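subagent[fold] <- orchestrator: predict structure for attached chain, return tokens only, no commentary.
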Amino acid sequence: MVIQQPSNQIKLTNVSLVRLKKGKKRFEIACYKNKVMEWRQGIETDLDNVLQIPNVFLNVSKGQTAPTSELQKAFGKDMSTDDIILEILRKGELQVGEKERTAQLERVHAEVISIVASKLVDPRTKRVYTPGMIEKALEMLSSQAHSNSSGEKDSKSGTGTPATGEGDEAKPLPPPPAATKQHMWTGVVATKSAKSQALDAMKALVAHQPIPITRARMKLRITCSTNVLKQAVKAPKKPAGAADEGEQKAHGTVKDKILSFVEQVESQDVVGSEWEVVGFVEPGAFKVLSDFIGSETKGQGKVEVLDMAVTHED
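subagent[fold] -> orchestrator:
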């Protein structure tokens, strides 16, 4: 026997909602899981694969569609239903279930750990750490950050135990180091990209050193015309208002400056009228080095990346 459903009842399962509050009303659209993010990233372009049904709702779970009068009042009479759906897709807040949030957070967490593990090494052996060791080190920083945060709250509320000197007069606690403020790590979140969080995690690990750790060096090939190698490099200009000490002194040669960026030279040679050096550079110095070569050699020098992260693996 076939069970008939009321023709006006909309049943939506396996649904993710995108909600947008406009005026005093909240509007919803029903989408397929994971497709909204792909559409926002430009991976998915077919709206039929994103929307479960091309309608705007006041309440998806109750199947309550938004009246045309409400849509026109909130979005204006010039906007069609398709335009309203696109605006909700672009600006709305994606609602997902607890399981989906957990799964998404786990995916981002695994990606962050993978990126960090591939970019950091033991400074003594230049060997990479296992993802498990990176994860434990970040957990240590996260626990420390939450502990410090709780301590600051207790101190502000007066429930903490202040440091005291002679007598009963309390002395203020010393301010935390600058690195602690700038490179705090509190854990992975699902609202930021894995790459940006991996960069934050690397900065925190290098700043706090829960384990001996450093950024893996880049391997570069730098070439430059011999005509400019011996040219003097002027010291950087002083800011306005600084004391004038006469003509700026030379700051070494172009070759000296280039070699100052290279932590370890692997090879160095002159072939004809071109000088070439292959060596290892700290990633943070790469942009400064590239800008220097671009400005000082006037097109007669270049930097080539041979390896983004040089590591030794077991």
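orchestrator: received. Logging for downstream: Confidence is low (pLDDT under 50) at residues 1-10, 161-180, 245-250. The longest helix spans residues 131-157.
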